[in-house]
Write a structure and sequence with these properties.
Residues 13-67 form the HTH cro/C1-type domain. The protein is mainly alpha-helical and 78 residues long. It has one domain (8-69): lambda repressor-like DNA-binding domains (434 Repressor (Amino-terminal Domain), Orthogonal Bundle). The protein contains 5 helices and 2 strands, in the order E-H-H-H-H-H-E. The protein has helices at 13-19, 24-31, 35-42, 50-60, 64-67; strands spanning 8-11, 68-71. Strands 1-2 form a two-stranded antiparallel ribbon. The protein is elongated, with a radius of gyration of 14 Å.
């Protein structure tokens, strides 16, 4: 059985997109996904693949860690 660590990934895709004055569709077209993918990612209901995360960061010309943040859950054995 797979253990749930409670980890998550938060993102600032919405903030970067709005600052760039882009629609969800425009960003989706630039990074090769659907508008729905951008929508659910901005809502926090979808964790992108590593490849997509890097594509988005590259598009905005920032480090991937500037847009995506790993949040460690509380169930880790430290």
């Amino acid at each position: 059985m797979k253990k749930d660590f409670g980890d998550s990934i938060s993102n600032k895709v919405y903030e970067y997109r709005v600052l760039a004055r882009m629609t969800q569709k425009e960003l989706a077209d630039k990074v090769g996904v659907s508008k729905q993918t951008i929508f659910v990612m901005e809502k926090g209901n979808y964790v992108p693949t590593l490849l997509l995360a890097f594509r988005i960061a590259d598009f905005f010309e920032v480090d991937v860690n500037d847009i995506f943040t790993y949040e460690k859950g509380s169930d880790h054995d430290d």
